[in-house]
Specification:
The protein is mostly helical. It folds into 3 domains: 9-62, no CATH class; 68-98; 101-172, no CATH class. The protein is 49% helix and 9% strand. The chain contains 7 helices and 4 strands. The longest helix has 24 residues, at 69-92. The protein is elongated, with a radius of gyration of 31 Å.
Length: 176
């Protein structure tokens, strides 16, 4: 039987093995998928071998001895624990707190000391509710805008708020 490797590809595979690499780029493409990437262990096509492995995983009869109730329960418990830990980590971060536009605006104003003492939170809440209502009724996104931007020294006060379409607000930016 003739050697299945060309003279050029043999050194490439041996070099990859010597370097401890799992795959290497062969010279001859795979006859099935035309992929050049090969495994150093047996010289087979990476893409075709992965597809074969996935087919085997989907074969219930072949995988039955490996799928047991204990393993399934253990995997479910591990996934639940991972989800719990991620949720705990997410909720402990500042970014993890889900805030509405109103509470986000209030927080930014407090940080910049631009929330005056005479601000009527009920009126501010009504402005944000009106903005949501208009957006839902018209189908055009609207935003609550600060007439004098907070970044320019404006206050988060009901007299400094107006409702604009998203397009108008983005065009305005933080200019007066």
């Amino acid at each position: 039987m003739a050697n299945q490797y060309t003279k050029d590809s043999l050194p490439r595979r041996q070099l990859a093995k010597k370097n401890g690499e799992i795959t290497y780029q062969g010279y001859k493409p795979c006859s099935k998928c035309s992929n050049l990437e090969r495994y150093t262990s047996n010289g087979s096509c990476v893409k075709c071998e992965r597809e074969k492995g996935l087919q085997n995983l989907l074969d219930d009869e072949l995988m039955a001895p490996y799928r047991t109730k204990e393993k399934d329960a253990k995997n479910r418990a591990r996934r639940r624990e991972t989800i719990r830990e991620n949720n705990k980590r997410y909720s402990q971060t500042e970014k993890g707190k889900i805030t509405s536009n109103l509470s986000a605006s209030n927080r930014r104003a407090k940080v910049r000391n631009q929330l005056p003492g005479d601000a009527d939170f009920e009126k501010i809440r009504q402005i944000y509710a009106e903005c949501r209502r208009i957006s839902q009724e018209t189908g055009i996104p609207h935003e609550v805008d600060h007439i004098i931007p907070i970044s320019k020294g404006g206050l988060h006060h009901q007299d400094n708020l107006q409702i604009l379409t998203l397009f108008e607000n983005r065009q305005k930016g933080n200019s007066l």
